[in-house]
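---------- Forwarded message ----------

FYI, see the AHH domain-containing protein record below. Original note from H. follows.
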Amino acid sequence: MGKKTLEQAEKATQRAKDSAARADRAVQRAREYLKTRKTPAARARAKNRLKEKQELASTRQKAVQKAEADQQKAKQDNDHLQQLLAPETHRPTQDGGCVTRGSGGYICDVPGHNYRENGFNYQSTCAEKDWYNLDFSKEGEARDRFNTRLGLTFSMKPASEDPREPGNANLWWMGNGANFQTPGIPWVWNAHHVVAVGELKKLDLWMLLVLQKANYNVHKGWNIIFLPVHYPYGKVFQLPAHPQSKKNPAAKFHVHYSTMVKDKVMEVRQFFEEMAEQKGGHSLVSDKDCSGPKNSLEKFSQRMREPIRSLGVDSLQDKVNLNLLPKFIENRPQFASLLSKR
């Protein structure tokens, strides 16, 4: 989870011990050298040299102690990480806890933890589907936005059809074919985590483990929202743009949004730290103690959906992106509590 691995910590400890051993040998040589000095001046110089070697040896010994402490922490983190990936804490279905990408890499391979599937199932079966299921075959605001933003001579992919043509009303709709289930279809989108796995990394591994055991699932449908990658589609569908890669110009705009989410995660971190202090150690904090932070994160995800949508609808800027959201929320009293501390 971004921490020093156990193998790295073990190697660092060994390097520190080797360095300390060399320093100890240098002290011994300085002592032997002092014994051979006869004149007062020579003995004084030899004593100064011995003192320097002893101070260095003391510093190296402290470095060993720190490295050993880091190694112990890395071992604990490694144990916690293994537990995070273990079946007994990484249970299937959306109601099973999951705070990592799992053992599957980019997408968790545990059944019910695929964030794209969960997001699709959530949005395609609730009122939010209307954000995407626009009828461009009829005259109206949606078609006007299409013509203005995507152009009257809209260039389609090979073998694909124009959604403005008669009979193509549902061509781009959620639930039609591979739309929003296959990347890039019907247009380039990103299944955005409202609270991202990356922001959860601000929590210690033991905190994540407790959350997971309490069945907090970062990949649950209500934490996922499909956003366009390119600005013109954002204006057509009235949704803020989300970066797909570092090559995309919108990528630089995500930092302020992430900071806002990090603030919420840091509130959760504070809760865990206070709970650990109250109980006398983090090993005594259980999933039964963390209904508060679990519910806080879940409610945050659910409540963030409305301002994300409102930003896309209300913003007059040509290039609307997630970075604009914090300022947008500040100027909307109905959303102000999203930025408040617990």
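H. also flagged this: The first strand starts at residue 189 and ends at 193.
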